[in-house]
Design a protein that fits this description.
6 helices, 5 strands, 17% strand
């Protein structure tokens, strides 16, 4: 089981009050929590992010962006959630991702969750996000959750009406937490092996 200090964050790519995307990400995070990770839901409304200029160290960027970057950087796993807009993921999430980069995402485990108002689901948006994950040198777990007609899927309190969908969302979170734990242990074992194989220190 992942240790309690292992952090999985969820980023909702929707600014709408009562967002189904946020409800879906919150459910996935509960799966990560059940797998032993600490969790944190990131509501982008709290950060008032500027539009990306393409510069990673723009002096005009607010402290809220620094706080977001530090929080995501501290996580071992990340769940990205988006509504599908015009066959892709939201501009809000794209801007947030453009304001971050390898420092925050490289080597991290990523889980994907998408919602749509139509019957097909958010597969195009999730495929685009999968490409972004690869571009950022992150590991995108195979499990993902696409929710069609999201307005039918949730109760007013944010709980999921369908037990199978609830389990699918939680599975995304569980897999992010589990693979993040395994990846961290692999790095620890590699360090121990390198330490053991290092030549003796003549001055030791």
């Amino acid at each position: 089981m992942p240790p309690e200090q292992s952090l999985v964050v969820g980023i909702s790519g929707s600014l709408r009050a009562g967002s189904y995307t946020t409800m879906a990400v919150a459910t996935a995070l509960r799966g990560a929590e059940e797998a032993g990770a600490s969790i944190r839901l990131i509501d982008l409304r709290d950060y008032r992010l500027p539009l990306s200029t393409g510069a990673t160290d723009d002096a005009t960027y607010p402290d809220s962006l620094k706080a977001l970057r530090e929080l995501v950087k501290s996580a071992s796993g990340i769940i990205l959630g988006t509504p599908e807009y015009h066959g892709s993921f939201s501009g809000v999430l794209k801007n947030a991702l453009d304001l971050m980069g390898f420092d925050e995402f490289e080597g991290k485990m990523i889980g994907l969750v998408g919602v749509s108002g139509g019957q097909i689901g958010a597969f195009d948006a999730l495929n685009s996000l999968r490409n972004v994950g690869r571009a950022l040198h992150a590991w995108v777990v195979p499990e993902q959750a696409s929710i069609p007609e999201a307005w039918k899927a949730f109760n007013a309190d944010g709980s999921v009406r369908n037990s199978q969908l609830n389990e699918r969302l939680k599975t995304v979170g569980r897999q992010v937490a589990r693979f993040a734990f395994l990846h961290a242990r692999e790095k620890d074992l590699a360090f121990v092996k390198a330490w053991e194989q290092a030549p003796p220190n003549p001055g030791g």
